[in-house]
Specification:
There is one protein chain. This protein has 71 residues and is mainly α. It has a two-stranded parallel sheet.
Amino acid sequence: ESSAASDVYKRQDAAIAVRASTSAYGTTKLSNSTTSSSKTLAATPYAVKTALAQAKAYVDSAIAVAINSAY
């Protein structure tokens, strides 16, 4: 193994060992949860899409109730 390749692996290992934060790149754990309040987990695209669908369904329902109660 060349010295350059060894250096790349060492840098990759060091980067993996660093936890991500709002101010630094690093590794983070992904979550599909739509109810988590964690500040240390990152939402997957699936979790974001699901949460958006839930919010839209809630708003649509509230609008329907408001319209029906107005008559």
